[in-house]
Amino acid sequence: MMDIALITANANQLRYILEFGDRNTVFYITTMLIVTSILLQVAVGVCLIFKGRFDMAGDAKQYQANRLNNYVVMGVFLVTIINVFVATFTISPKQGSGSS
């Protein structure tokens, strides 16, 4: 299950890329992926809050609860896939730069 560590890591990655990233194609792709991941994490968190408070009495409510659960599972899957791409495109510090 997603937790605060993942959203904190994404926020830190976003800060890093905005601060140190070169404005190239990879910069924009990574920024877009990180922002999308953070937004999806917030949406999944809100869905989990509603899911925890859901009254499942009756067949119609059970259908809605199952549908909400499917959205949560899809959201978690998408966040996982997006974060794999974020890790792939993450910009590392350039070798040889900085003071010696």
From TrEMBL:
The keyword Transmembrane helix applies. It is a multi-pass membrane protein. InterPro entries: Ninjurin (IPR007007). The chain crosses the membrane at residues 26-50, 71-91. Pfam families: Ninjurin (PF04923). GO terms for biological process: cell adhesion; tissue regeneration. Coiled coil: none annotated. One of its GO terms (cellular component) is membrane. Its main location: membrane. The keyword Protein biosynthesis does not apply. Keywords: Cell adhesion, Membrane, Transmembrane, Transmembrane helix. Belongs to the ninjurin family. This is Ninjurin-1.
